[in-house]
């Protein structure tokens, strides 16, 4: 058994950049393994406009291209681009840059499969809203490794099924570092490992288009199966990672989330998540201060679960949301579990219009039908089966410059009012999320003046009230910074 464990330690994530606190810098660390072209590679010269595009078009599928050091350009209009064929491989010598010069919309396009990019820097492309620069058309099976994608408009990178992004830098892109969306059935089997995702949403899209939900270090839409491990997600102008609408089966582990303006992780109308072994430090300060300044008492969060929970009928590696073994240090707040009583399939309050839950057909979630079993339950995205245990929460209001509305955990909903045909009016969902949906904190360690918002925004209790009936939360937890346990 000892030998087997040692072998696992040796082979897991060999390329991750890690420091004493976990994942570390990738941006600015140019790989050197492609200093010379491998045998048989097609050599691409810088300074020859469209050479990369032309040589890609002229060679068969499965060709390896080696880009010499220098700046490579793709043509003088917005449609200059590279259209890879299946299995094409692009290797960048140290100093090889593909530059859109603010003219070209996208760098690598079309839907070839199993394309690989290694060692490139890709910058200066003018992608449109919600579109991307690399893998613009969401081809499947792409591998992006040791590559820097920076200073582009739109999304630096799109995703397809089976895509792996490893040891790469997604930095200072205008809307997203990564936009994981694919038309049709959505993306399966996405891997993000050992990357640095930083400074994205330079265009401040949530201000530009209020309520768009269209920004983040990485945004995921209807992704089924994602492994997100060993990344440094920091300094993004909005959410760090945002999973929005019918995502499922996410494993988020061993990441370092630091100084993201809004939520470090936002998991929204989605299912089945394991969040373990991560460090969250200094997140949500910008958003928290903005809420406090305008007197908005909604409990903003470092980890925000909105209408998301465990669902055994949706196949995944877990049937719960399991949040364990994480360290939270001097963030604006902790974890919020929220369920909007007015947001359900076919409700006008569902901003993911056109989408229904994975447990009910859209046609069943209508007036005259929705109030009957089983669709009464199945037409709601439920915040349920969430277990928060074995975590450490440390908070010092003075260090983050907070005087009010910080240092809070929350378990709550709103009083249902809308639409007229909703069967979830009144306190139905407030009571359900608080008492009946299997949401449980236990065996955690707290340090600092934590408060707990429970049932609705009007109710805030201290640790004793949180542990007492009727809430009975955080059994066997320590509120003095000590070791948890009964």
UniProtKB/TrEMBL annotation:
Pfam families: Beta_helix. Transmembrane segments: none annotated. Keywords: Lipoprotein, Signal. Gene3D superfamilies: Single-stranded right-handed beta-helix, Pectin lyase-like (2.160.20.10). Residues 1-17 form the signal peptide. The keyword Signal applies. InterPro entries: Beta_helix (IPR039448), PbH1 (IPR006626), Pectin_lyas_fold (IPR012334), Pectin_lyase_fold/virulence (IPR011050). The keyword Signal applies. Residues 135-284 form the Right handed beta helix domain. This is Lipoprotein.
């Amino acid at each position: 058994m000892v030998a087997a464990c040692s072998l696992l330690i040796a082979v897991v994530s060999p390329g991750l950049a890690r420091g004493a606190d976990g994942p570390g810098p990738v941006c600015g660390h140019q790989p050197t393994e492609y200093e010379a072209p491998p045998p048989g590679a097609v050599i691409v010269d810088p300074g020859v406009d469209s050479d990369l595009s032309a040589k890609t078009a002229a060679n068969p599928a499965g060709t390896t291209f080696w880009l010499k050091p220098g700046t490579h350009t793709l043509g003088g209009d917005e449609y200059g681009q590279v259209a890879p064929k299946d299995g094409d491989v692009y290797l960048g010598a140290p100093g090889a840059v593909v530059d859109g010069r603010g003219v070209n919309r996208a760098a690598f396009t079309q839907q070839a499969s199993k394309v690989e990019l290694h060692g490139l820097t890709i910058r200066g492309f003018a992608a449109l809203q919600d579109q991307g620069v690399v893998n613009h058309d969401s081809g499947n099976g792409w591998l992006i490794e040791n590559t820097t994608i920076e200073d582009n408009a739109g999304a630096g990178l799109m995703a397809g099924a089976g895509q792996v992004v490893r040891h790469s830098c997604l930095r200072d892109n205008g809307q997203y570092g990564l936009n994981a969306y694919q038309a049709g059935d959505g993306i399966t089997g996405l891997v993000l490992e050992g990357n640095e995702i930083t400074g994205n949403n330079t265009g401040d899209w949530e201000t530009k288009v209020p309520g768009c939900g269209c920004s983040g270090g990485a945004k995921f839409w209807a992704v089924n199966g994602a492994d997100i491990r060993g990344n440094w997600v920091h300094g993004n102008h909005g959410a760090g990672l945002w999973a929005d609408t019918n995502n499922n089966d996410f494993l988020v582990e061993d990441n370092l989330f630091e100084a993201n303006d809004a939520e470090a992780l936002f998991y929204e109308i989605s299912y089945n998540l394991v969040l373990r072994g991560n460090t969250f430090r200094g997140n949500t300060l910008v958003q928290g201060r903005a809420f406090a300044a305008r007197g908005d008492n909604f409990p903003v969060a470092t980890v925000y679960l909105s209408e998301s929970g465990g669902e055994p009928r949706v196949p995944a590696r877990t049937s719960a949301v399991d949040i364990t073994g994480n360290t939270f240090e001097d963030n604006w707040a902790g974890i919020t579990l929220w369920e909007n009583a007015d947001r359900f399939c076919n409700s006008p309050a569902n901003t993911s219009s056109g989408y229904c839950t994975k447990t009910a057909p859209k046609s069943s979630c209508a007036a005259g039908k929705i109030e009957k079993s089983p669709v009464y339950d199945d037409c709601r995205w439920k915040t349920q089966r969430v277990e928060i245990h074995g975590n450490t929460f440390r908070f010092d209001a003075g260090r983050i410059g907070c005087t009010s509305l910080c240092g809070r955990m929350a378990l709550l909903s709103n009083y249902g009012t809308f639409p007229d045909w909703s069967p979830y009016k009144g306190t139905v969902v407030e009571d359900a999320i608080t008492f009946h949906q299997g949401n449980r904190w236990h065996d955690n360690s707290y340090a600092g003046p934590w408060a707990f918002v429970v049932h609705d925004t009007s109710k805030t209790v201290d640790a004793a009230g949180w542990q007492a009936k009727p809430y009975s939360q955080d059994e066997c937890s320590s509120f003095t910074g000590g070791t948890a346990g009964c």
